[in-house]
Design goal:
alpha/beta; binds calcium ion; 2 domains; Rossmann fold; 453 residues; 7-stranded parallel beta sheet; 24% helix
């Protein structure tokens, strides 16, 4: 997964029409209730179609023209809407299973994939997770582990039932889901039963990962064993589909959701070029990042993976959004190999890319982090998979985890102060001078000591 997920740039048309009885507003509750999703379909078309054929539908995203139709076969819908792309909806309705039983089993199995004690790293952690050594993040310093800090992962979702992330999932006890869900928005934040974040792609309260990217990212930042900040909370926000793509409207909505629901740090391992036809959407994205700044929320964004040829580009010349927004709360992250040289795929920019962090490379392999379970259910801890990936997508959560550590070391620090610590506490690397603004690879130990100072 070398490429970061690019934002699909879609033309936006607004449509509106009257309420119709065949329209339903709630997302399906189980797989047997799901329908077929059609793209490029307006609500007016959906009303017309439902009246002619007795179908029910729901609007998943009006701007994106995504409509889910019920009581119809995919092939038949395709015939009725030849311009639309269609796909059978798949509903991952797994409620969060959150059990922090690792202490009880400590000593049983200290392999990275098994039970572990969250209070300490073991001596062989560097064998599996050399990137922790590379940024001096293997030792827990002064018990600074990200406690009390929330990182929103705006991505393909998070497989929140992986036992090495589930204890760190941020939950909203004012609006529960699963067996405790009631389909109502009990806390009045605009999202019904949003106990573990929100899925803006499918419009449901289960932002579970159907791709793998977001789970890997979440684990690098705050996995309970090898995360940079092993006790930070993760708020899963799904804005990218199973294909790793999404639209700017959902991403902007996801940022606002993160801000309103307790995020201190927003991780955005995604990006796309700023084409000339999408300036309005880019402005929306920018304004949501500015709202984050007003609320003292940091945004850590991937610099990008070199575009279609996979060879790193200069973001100073060709901006990538959101990474290239020049805002005091936004840190743009490049990726270095295990030798602290810029990864061949990594974008760079002496003005617009602030720091570098390990992100894996072809030469040395990807970073090891959490993977989707093959069982897609409750698996035993010893069968939980880890996998390797590389990209600026992987370097970014290393920096998000670091921001969480700094914030937990000294909660009174504001985003300017955290930014300064991150940008000035790294290790100067000759190879990065002039191509990364700080010329540095981040360093966890120095940054925590700076924060505590
Ligand atoms: Ca709610
Ligand atoms: Ca509820
Ligand atoms: Ca979902
Ligand atoms: Ca390129």
């Amino acid at each position: 997964m070398k490429r970061i997920s690019y934002i699909a740039m879609m033309a936006i048309l607004f449509t509106s029409c009257g309420k119709n009885l065949s329209e339903i507003t709630s997302a399906p509750k189980s797989n047997s209730q799901t329908g077929v999703i059609a793209s490029c379909t307006t609500k007016a078309q959906a009303v017309e179609l439902s009246e002619a054929h007795g179908l029910q539908f729901r609007v998943i995203n009006e701007k994106r023209k995504l409509i889910e139709f019920f009581h119809i076969k995919e092939v038949e819908l395709k015939r009725l809407l030849p311009r639309a792309k269609t796909k059978k909806n798949v509903f991952f309705d797994e409620p969060l299973v959150q059990g922090d039983n690792f202490e009880a089993q400590a000593g049983v199995n200290y392999q990275y994939y098994g039970a572990h004690n969250r209070e300490s790293r073991t001596s062989d952690i560097s064998r599996f997770f050399p990137h922790l050594d590379q940024v001096e993040g293997h030792d827990i310093i002064n018990n600074v582990q990200g406690q009390g800090v929330t990182i929103a992962v705006i991505d393909t979702g998070v497989y929140y039932n992986h036992p090495h992330i589930s204890p760190n999932i941020k939950t909203n006890n004012n609006d529960r889901h699963g067996n405790n869900g009631n389909g109502a928005d009990d806390d009045g934040n605009g999202y019904a039963d949003d106990y573990v974040g929100w899925d803006f792609v499918n419009g449901d309260a289960f932002p579970i990962d159907d791709h793998g990217h977001g789970t890997h990212v979440a684990g690098l930042a705050a996995g309970t064993y090898a995360g940079i900040a092993p006790q930070a909370k993760i708020l899963p926000i799904k804005v990218l589909g199973a294909d790793g793509r999404g639209d700017l409207g959902s991403i902007a909505a996801g940022i606002l959701y993160a801000i309103d629901n307790g995020a201190d740090i927003i991780n955005m391992s995604l990006g796309g070029p700023g084409g000339s036809s999408v300036t309005g959407q880019i402005r929306n994205l920018l304004s949501s990042i500015q709202v984050a700044k007003q609320r003292d929320v940091m945004v850590i964004a991937a610099a990008g993976n070199g575009g279609s040829d996979g060879i790193g580009d200069c973001n100073d010349a060709e901006p990538v959004y959101p990474a290239s927004f020049d805002e005091s709360n936004l840190i743009s992250v490049a990726s270095v190999t295990s030798y602290n040289t810029l990864a061949s795929y990594s974008n760079f920019g002496g003005e617009s890319v602030h720091v570098a962090a390990p992100g894996g490379s072809q030469e040395n392999g990807g970073l090891l982090s959490l993977a989707l379970p093959s069982c897609f259910g409750q698996c035993s801890q010893s069968t939980q998979p880890y996998t390797r990936s590389s990209g600026t997508s992987m370097a970014t959560p290393i920096v998000s985890g670091l921001a969480a550590l700094i914030k937990s070391a000294k909660p009174s620090l504001n985003h300017n102060q955290i930014f300064n610590i991150i940008e000035n506490s790294g290790i100067e690397i000759g190879d990065l001078q002039g191509i990364i603004k700080s010329g540095q690879v981040i360093n966890v130990r120095n940054a925590i000591l700076d924060a505590l100072n």
